[in-house]
Amino acid sequence: MTILRVFGAYLAAVLVLIVLAVITQSLFVLSALTAVGAEIGAGDALAMLGDDLIGLGPLYGIFIALGLAVALLAAALVSRLLPVPRGWVFSAAGVVCMLVMLTLMKEVFFGVQIIAGARSMTGLVVQAVAGGIAGVVFVLLTPQGDLSKSRT
């Protein structure tokens, strides 16, 4: 497998994670607004999702791209050493990436989680699951043997 294919799989995983992370965080914000009595129509909700993808996506994407690069490299090393299915290893790497990244972001910003949709435990878990999905996307786009010698 060429380095271009691995890089393409990485980019696909990053894009999937950005879209999932931004949309789910936006849905958590919309839910919280509705819970306090805000009346939000479908058009407004869709507009917010679009605005968040355009406004938050690029900045959040920088953090995601950096975190996922480290996580996927670590997963490639781990999958060479452990006889564990690649899907589990890379999915776990995506989950850990998001948990670590969001925790560090909160610490850097004086204890305030700047990703509003990750302020609750449920929101944090959903963000982590999105990371796990990105790890699976990477595995699906990189056949066994290209990054590791472990089983699929």
Give the radius of gyration: 17 Å
**Euclidean distance between termini CA atoms:** 16 Å
Contiguous runs where pLDDT drops below 50 for at least 5 residues:
148-152
Which class of secondary structure composition applies to the elements? mainly alpha
**Which whole number gives the mean pLDDT?**
93
Query: Quick one: how many beta strands?
Result: 0
- SSE series: HHHH
The biggest beta sheet reads: none
> How many helical elements?
4
Principal-axes shape call: elongated
- Total number of distinct structural domains: 1
Helical amount among residues, as a percent range?
over 70%
| Beta-strand residue percentage | under 5%
Please tell me about this protein's structure:
The chain has four helices and no strands. With 152 residues, the protein is mainly alpha-helical. It has one domain (3-141). Helix 1 crosses helix 2 (42-81) and helix 3 (86-108) packs across helix 4. The chain is elongated, with a radius of gyration of 17 Å. The model is unreliable at 148-152 (pLDDT under 50).
Key terms:
4 helices, elongated, 152 residues
Brief sketch in words of this structure:
The protein has 152 residues and is an all-alpha fold.
Secondary structure: elements and pairs:
Blueprint: H1 3-35, H2 42-81, H3 86-108, H4 121-141
Helix pairs in contact: 1-2, 1-4, 2-3, 3-4
